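Exercise 3.2. Students should predict the tertiary structure of the chain below and write it as structure tokens, then compare their answer with the key that follows.

Predict this chain's 3D structure.
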Amino acid sequence: MAKCWANSLGGCDGISGEHIFSNAIFKAGCSCPTLVEGVKRIRGGDPTRGAEKSNILCRHHNSLLSPLDEVIGQVANFQAEANCESFNGTLLVEGELLERWLLKTVVNVAAAGWMGPFKWQPSDDIVGSIFGLSPVPAQLGLYSVDGVDPNHRPSGGVSFSPLFFLTPAGRILAGVYVTVHGMPLLASFNTELARRLESGEMPDLQTKFSPEGLRHLYHPGAIVMSRQRGKPVHIGLSWGGVLRYADGTTASFPRNAAAVSAT
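Answer key:
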């Protein structure tokens, strides 16, 4: 029988067909096909009919995570708008929501068995963090990554690259690179992961996103998006309800303001 990966929270009802990667990513007005790369259960990176869903969450817990799908939908819409050279807007989002979406996506992939032959279940601590019931431990969770996915298509898509450490007990999942329409993010499950990646312990990845090497930033105040045409645009991330700017100033997150301000 299908099992909800958030069953430790209680209150489960009928199972739902959860999109492994939020469907909002592919409804951004960019005519993006559903392209998913880097997962083992999708032959050639292209999902077969219905393969983008899996019975891994009940309807109740799926609905509670709707705000996470909404925030990545805002990011995807912003990316689509930024394809226009004349666009010069800024997107403001709550960093915690984007981080929770990132962790949810990793758990979805693992619970669906897309990382290999086994279906993994998250710990109660991870489940609590994804649902906002407990904070993500410091130095774990979301890191921005300098550069662009080299396999990014103009039509868009997502990719998923798990990172493992070898231990005497076997391989352990240390983190995952998830890219959304070319924008890479790192979900870290080990406080040493970013440092070890930047030091070259995984040489095949050293210039994956940038010829200048790997650079990560924990809980960034902004993600800068370079464009082929037009000046870079920014996604501002608040943490603890506070936006932090490069000049050292801060501002409260404008919860009642429009998310995108064009100039």
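Discussion points: Residues 26-262 form one domain. The mean pLDDT is 85.
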